[in-house]
């Protein structure tokens, strides 16, 4: 019985380790990479909010997030932003704080995001959906 528990625990730890990946130099994003990511048309998820880290820009993780509420995928919003740590501010890491409208229930609400400088000014003009 003890061997079975130990084997199960070892497999679980191995699987979790495989799922967690550290960002490398290959994950480093340039300003041009951010602009391409923002301009890219994408299929939107059919349900719920989804987000993941797409790389690192100027030492800060960049997150791509799809915000959806009641009417997915019609009212889904894609946002690419800096993941600001709790001990920092957007401006201190070189980002631009912008308030944008995100889906909420059957309406929208304003939410602040920290955008990388390269995409902040024209954020609303980038297409999100195909």
State the gist of this model.
With 130 residues, this protein is α+β, with helices and mostly antiparallel strands. It contains three helices and five strands, in the order ααβββββα.
Defining key terms:
alpha+beta, 130 residues, three-stranded antiparallel β-sheet, disordered N terminus, globular, two-stranded antiparallel ribbon
Could you explain the architecture of this structure?
With 130 residues, the protein is α+β, with helices and mostly antiparallel strands. The protein has helices spanning 2-19, 31-39, 117-120, and strands at residues 50-57, 60-67, 77-82, 95-104, 107-116. The strands form two sheets. It has a three-stranded antiparallel β-sheet, covered by helices on one side. The chain has a two-stranded antiparallel ribbon with strand order 4-5. The longest helix has 18 residues, at 2-19.
Question: How are the SSEs placed, and which strands pair?
Answer:
Layout: H1 2-19, H2 31-39, E1 50-57, E2 60-67, E3 77-82, E4 95-104, E5 107-116, H3 117-120
Antiparallel strand pairs: 1-2, 2-3, 4-5
């Amino acid at each position: 019985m003890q061997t079975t528990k130990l084997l199960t625990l070892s497999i679980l730890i191995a699987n979790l380790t495989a799922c967690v990946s550290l960002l490398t130099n290959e994950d480093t994003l340039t300003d041009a990479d951010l602009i391409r990511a923002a301009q890219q048309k994408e299929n939107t998820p059919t349900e719920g909010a989804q987000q993941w880290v797409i790389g690192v820009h100027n030492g800060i993780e960049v997150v791509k997030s799809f915000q959806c509420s009641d009417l997915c995928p019609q009212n889904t919003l894609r946002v690419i932003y800096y993941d600001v740590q709790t001990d920092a501010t957007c401006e201190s890491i070189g980002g631009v704080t912008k308030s944008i409208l995100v889906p909420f229930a059957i309406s929208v609400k304003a939410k602040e995001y920290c955008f990388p400088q390269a995409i902040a000014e024209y954020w609303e003009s980038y297409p999100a959906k195909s």
